[in-house]
């Protein structure tokens, strides 16, 4: 991706009304635009309190003007900030003035993109800006700040450093066979490779925790009509989100609710009860339920413990999903223990299913359920002070881990140094995608276009 020479401008503060509103500009014309708007040449990095002038010298607004000459600015280019009053009309007038003076409207994420292209931030740091702004909990915000300050990137760099050392060693051995380095018996290579794999694995765990805090997990509540699914949603949300009635078939569409368990975002879906029905609207609701359940990270399968045995559930599942319920994705909720008299609590049965006995209507067992969901998310208390990470980063780390493992197998079973060397080269490239030292225009476009304008 190439930097263009345009000067870009955007309202950097949120839409709507506010005490102040900021317009940010970046590019070679920032200074001349400042002179035209203020009527004087601004001193670098000083706050000038002044009038913002229209072409007619009519005063548009008054406020603070800040000029940051390149390269000491957020984008690495000349940057101008106009801090005026935060109303949509006045900010729009000021922005129009900047556009008349030669700037163009910035695309989403274009300031961050320029900062990245000018080497002010790496890609993981640029993503952390967006994650910080969009953080849904305090812990997620703390993690994003850590990533912004380079905590994640540093770990990736350390891995890349190790990898480069190992590559030099391996490639040296290939290029100078007369030195007769015996790959297999050279404990050095295997030792370093294993060390690298361990470090990568540790980073993967930390990044997984970071991604969890950022993205959370989607949980679908499923079961027959009247099992107590909507009651369970309400109990988890700790408010009345869904309509609860004794009439079967009340919940017809998929209901969404976002909750947090100790800072971790959970996306809970209440779905229509699964049953065979002639009601056309209910049928559509059930189709939607089935696809929501298939896509969820975890399923809470609810039964009325006063009426149904676990065996009925297997039958239900086979009917709608053509397979047995997967104990790795499903928690069986035996609801309404107040009616059945079953003791409340969590249990793992012989078939490997986690069974939770509770009474959703009265929130009995909700804390146990929350603890259980936390465990399902792979939440590790010792690891919580981390950094933010995205699924993209996790995927890259996983691909890198697979390649290293493949490299080790190539070394052990084929003694082929060339194959190992190629695996290591690709691993380095994949790790480089995280920080952006290897990146395609397509990847950059995808990342920055998801940012908001002015970021
Ligand atoms: P859904 O159709 O699966 O969403 O079920 P609802 O949440 O709408 O509940 C159906 C009926 O069961 C309602 O009358 C609820 O009050 C009742 N119910 C839900 N949970 C419990 C429970 O734990 N104990 C008892 N006794 N009744 C419950
Ligand atoms: Zn319901």
TrEMBL record:
EC number(s) stated in the UniProt entry for this protein: 3.6.-.-
This protein's UniProt keywords: Cytoplasm, GTP-binding, Hydrolase, Magnesium, Metal-binding, Nucleotide-binding, Potassium, tRNA processing
Binding-site residues for GTP, renumbered to this chain: 226-231, 245-251, 270-273
UniProt cofactor note: Binds 1 potassium ion per subunit.
Binding positions for Mg(2+) per the UniProt entry: 230, 251
Listed GO CC annotations: cytosol
Residues in the signal sequence: none
UniProt entry tagged with the keyword Hydrolase: yes
Top-level enzyme category: hydrolase
GO function terms (MF aspect): GTP binding; GTPase activity; metal ion binding
Protein location: Cytoplasm
Chief place where the protein resides: cytoplasm
Protein name: tRNA modification GTPase MnmE
Gene source species: Azomonas agilis
Encoding gene (name): mnmE
